[in-house]
């Protein structure tokens, strides 16, 4: 399929069975969980609302630990992500303060000590996270955009304009990322120029249900995801046109000037 093909390719996400390469939380009961994260080495973290929605309990375990530990934070945890080989757990947290104002921020936890540290303020719509290993950037999906922060300093990095309700991110390879949105799933190349004031979409797929979490297997053959309803889904990634996605993108030609009558 051509990278800029206008037709929409339907991506059918079906209920997944256990297979090689699923994330660590795949055997968990996802009922009522707000967020989840896992690594290839077996680190596991989940978050659940407590105290009538006023705070969240993060449950986590990092090998060689065999028992879970618990940390409470005020507000709702919207996403979780392990970095530094499981030594650090990041959380997007949203809480309401002073009745009307919403405070959304990035929380950093040292998994060895369970000590937490608030890092940066995020847009209210901030949701899923992913790491761009080559650029050492943390990416955060937000409405109309994808924010980035340099690692390990967490300073603001490039802003990627991607119109729509962006919910989750998954790194595929190099600068290629899958982005789950409220209306579709898209493949983007973060090295593309934003000369048209937005990040171009290299491929677009229809989905039966938006994903709030995505994970790609190490061999890049399958996508594991969790829908907004908490259902587990699995999808082969042979639908991706990677050769077209990494080739230079031809800028759109400007509209011709109207001829005088």
Notes on the protein architecture:
The protein is mostly beta strands and 261 residues long. Helices cover 2% and strands 51% of the residues. It is built from one helix and 19 strands. The strands form four sheets. The protein has a seven-stranded mixed sheet with strand order 1-16-15-14-13-12-11. A four-stranded antiparallel sheet has the order 2-19-18-17, with no helix packed on it. It has a four-stranded antiparallel sheet with strand order 3-4-5-6, with no helix packed on it. A hairpin with a 4-residue loop joins strand 4 and strand 5.
User: Spans with pLDDT under 50 lasting ≥5 residues?
Assistant: 1-19
The 3D shape can be described as globular
Order of strands, widest sheet: 1-16-15-14-13-12-11
Roughly how many Å is the radius of gyration? Answer: 19 Å
What is the tally of helical segments?
A: 1
Order of helices and strands: EEEEEEEEEEEEEEEEEEEH
**Biggest β-sheet strands, sense, barrel:** 7 strands, mixed
Provide the residue-averaged pLDDT: 86
Short characterization:
This protein is an all-beta fold and 261 residues long. Helix content is 2%, strand content 51%.
Secondary structure elements and their pairing?
Elements: E1 9-11, E2 14-15, E3 33-38, E4 44-50, E5 55-61, E6 69-74, E7 76-83, E8 88-97, E9 101-110, E10 115-121, E11 129-132, E12 137-150, E13 160-173, E14 176-181, E15 185-189, E16 201-207, E17 211-216, E18 222-227, E19 232-236, H1 242-246
Parallel strand pairs: 1-16
Antiparallel strand pairs: 2-19, 3-4, 4-5, 5-6, 7-8, 8-9, 9-10, 11-12, 12-13, 13-14, 14-15, 15-16, 17-18, 18-19
